[in-house]
């Protein structure tokens, strides 16, 4: 496949890209004519690779890349090919690893040398080149060899890898879903490669050097299945795991990924489990794993320790981005690109698998601070914080809503205002669907960085230039609509004209409907500590204080009945007691003082009187 490289415009860059094209053609000829003239093909490739290395060595931007490591991986591959000259069938090194590694080296050089140093080029690259440069061309989507390609990357930790692979082979039935197993040795120093080579029919990629994101992008290139399953090597899959995830993806043409619940994962992707060992875990999962679409949750983002993807949709948007060289937040980036393309990601709460938790990645998180570095990379790429508004749903609010006796209707209309990435809106919809209530979401946002995210999950969407513009849109663009649920994503005190905003929201709510919002407590522990020290709270540009009771009374004046729920902090009793000695108030005595100081804010569940 010939691919355009728009920014490889100077003579040296053009020569490099042409050299890669020749090398890929040579690799293809070697596979087609194997084993005839194999030695000559290897010598040609070795010479071309040396020229690539010398040319790339002059590009200072490649110091941030894994260019040098991938050069070593290709040399290692050529050495392995030499050892395979006596084989009559085309070996894995020739058929899969060599072309894949060459494609990855080409993209590593192109991105880090000709795209990344120039932020003004990023938009064009990601819009026009990224997906095409990472496309899988091995699968025929009309008549694929397999239905699913399962890939497992591993770096050392052989004991965990064995449990993982053995569980896949035990719990995944070829008779139900034809699958291939792709095993990726990502620079292991133990006996991982020997173990992989002992697995019959496995397709193996062996990286001599760890090149981080390239293990993921390489895996996608060699899949021959219509769907691609990523399984982390620190997991154990369970009965019917793939069948149930597969049914989910096939249920809706907009679903791009399906993920099971597991322990030891953030983003509220766990479920209540009870077992003491793997045998008990298997028994728990066998009872838990059922075909139940009511347990499918559409989510704004997914953290995939295990995930099944629609490969054709991944071809349209690209999979892992090598820009996230720390291996953190690549999944947040994929989630963002998926939802902005109009695809939906599903957490299947009807499927449970075991996850030990960061067996491979924890060391780098501690030593290299990869989480913070990855977060900074995400912000630089998208101008939005992946841990900010609506990246994951408001757990306390949604848990409370789920426990309520909600009106039984066939259809519920939801309005979100400044709902960030939108995960809380989606979770409200998930809660209602579990109660057999279909939902429709509309959105307004004044936070322009979230415009593309909210537009794709909303039936009607408006972008507001200011707070005043939000009020105008409520009375104009949405003038004929009323809602069963209205969710305000930012704290109420953020809005200067909060009274008028609440009045407009009360006018938009249906009889029996509910407004959900949050109010920060300006008199919490952190702020009081600052005030006692005659300082302003760290990181705050301004601090607004609204009396929680005054807000409740204002809602009452607008025919609303408001229930308040405190959001508690995590301060220790000793710290609360020490601070309480410095704060004197006749309104708060004893435990009441500690409770007031440890209250971060207040949730309001405001019902319209019927």
In words, what does this structure look like?
With 610 residues, the protein is α/β, with parallel strands linked by helices. 43% of the residues lie in helices and 19% in strands. It has helices at residues 11-33, 38-56, 67-82, 92-115, 122-133, 158-171, 192-197, 214-221, 241-251, 278-288, 311-317, 330-340, 362-367, 370-382, 395-403, 423-434, 451-457, 467-475, 498-508, 525-532, 548-557, 573-580, 591-597, and strands spanning 146-154, 179-186, 203-207, 225-231, 235-236, 255-261, 296-299, 306-310, 344-352, 354-355, 411-417, 438-445, 460-463, 483-488, 509-520, 560-568, 599-608. Helix 3 (67-82) runs antiparallel to helix 4. It is elongated. The mean pLDDT is 93.
Compute the number of strand runs: 17
| Residue fraction in strands | 15-25%
Low-confidence stretches: none
Rg (C-alpha, Å): 27 Å
Mean pLDDT: 93
Distance, first to last CA: 64 Å
Helix content: 40-55%
Strand count, sense and barrel status of the largest sheet are: 8 strands, mixed
| Coarse structural class | alpha/beta
Separate helix tally: 23
Strand order within the widest beta sheet? 3-2-1-4-8-6-9-7
């Amino acid at each position: 496949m010939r691919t355009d490289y728009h920014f490889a415009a100077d003579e040296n860059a053009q020569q490099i890209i042409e050299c890669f094209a020749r090398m890929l053609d040579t690799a293809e000829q070697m596979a087609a004519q194997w084993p005839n003239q194999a030695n000559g093909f290897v010598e040609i490739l070795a010479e071309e690779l040396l020229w690539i290395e010398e040319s790339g060595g002059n590009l200072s931007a490649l110091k941030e890349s894994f260019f040098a490591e991938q050069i070593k991986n290709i040399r290692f591959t050529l050495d392995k090919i030499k050892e395979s000259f006596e084989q009559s069938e085309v070996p894995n090194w020739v058929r899969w690893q060599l072309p894949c590694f060459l494609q990855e080296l080409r993209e590593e050089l192109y991105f880090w040398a000709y795209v990344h140093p120039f932020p003004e080029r990023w938009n064009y690259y990601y819009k026009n080149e990224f997906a095409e440069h990472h496309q899988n061309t091995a699968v025929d989507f009309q008549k694929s060899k397999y239905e699913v390609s399962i890939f497992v990357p591993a770096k050392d930790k052989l004991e965990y890898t064995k449990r993982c692979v053995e569980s896949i082979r035990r719990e995944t039935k070829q008779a139900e879903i034809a699958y291939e197993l792709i095993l990726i040795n990502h620079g292991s120093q133990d006996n991982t490669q020997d173990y992989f080579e002992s697995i019959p029919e496995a397709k193996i990629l062996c990286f001599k050097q760890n090149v981080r994101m390239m293990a993921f992008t390489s895996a996608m290139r060699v899949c021959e299945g219509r769907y691609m399953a990523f399984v982390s090597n620190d997991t154990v899959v369970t009965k019917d795991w793939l069948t149930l995830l597969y049914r989910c993806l096939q249920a809706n043409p907009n679903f791009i990924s399906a993920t099971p619940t597991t322990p030891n994962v953030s983003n509220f992707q766990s479920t209540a489990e009870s077992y003491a060992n793997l045998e008990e875990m298997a028994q728990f999962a066998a009872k838990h794993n059922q075909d139940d679409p009511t347990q499918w949750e559409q989510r704004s983002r997914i953290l995939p320790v295990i995930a099944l993807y629609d490969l054709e949709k991944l071809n349209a948007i690209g999979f892992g981005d090598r820009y996230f060289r720390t291996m953190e937040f690549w999944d947040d980036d994929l989630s963002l690109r998926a939802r902005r393309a109009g695809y939906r990601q599903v957490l299947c709460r009807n499927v449970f698998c075991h996850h030990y938790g960061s067996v491979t990645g924890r060391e780098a998180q501690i030593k290299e601070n990869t989480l913070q570095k990855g977060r900074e990379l995400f912000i630089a790429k998208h101008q939005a914080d992946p841990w900010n508004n609506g990246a994951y749903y408001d757990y306390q609010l949604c848990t409370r809503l789920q426990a309520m006796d909600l009106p039984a209707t066939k259809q519920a209309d939801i309005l979100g205002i400044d709902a960030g990435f939108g995960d809380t809106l989606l979770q409200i919809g998930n809660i209602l669907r579990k109660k057999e209530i279909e939902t429709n979401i509309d959105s307004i946002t004044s936070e322009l960085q979230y415009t593309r995210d909210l537009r794709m999950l909303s039936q009607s969407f408006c972008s507001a230039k200011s707070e005043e513009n939000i009020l105008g849109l409520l009375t104009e663009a949405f003038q004929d609509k009323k809602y069963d649920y209205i969710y305000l994503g930012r704290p109420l005190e953020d809005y200067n004209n909060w009274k008028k905003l609440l009045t407009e929201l009360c006018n938009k709510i249906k009889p029996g409907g509910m407004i959900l919002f949050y109010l920060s407590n300006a008199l919490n522990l952190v702020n009081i500590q600052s005030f006692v020290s005659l300082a302003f709270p760290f990181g705050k540009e301004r601090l607004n204080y609204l009396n929680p009771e005054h807000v409740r009374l204002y809602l009452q004046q607008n025919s609303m009945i408001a229930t308040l729920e405190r959001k508690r902090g995590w301060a220790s009793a000793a710290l609360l007691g020490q601070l309480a000695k410095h704060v004197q108030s006749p309104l708060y005595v004893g435990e009441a003082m500690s409770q007031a100081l440890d209250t971060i804010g207040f949730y309001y569940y405001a019902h319209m009187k019927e």
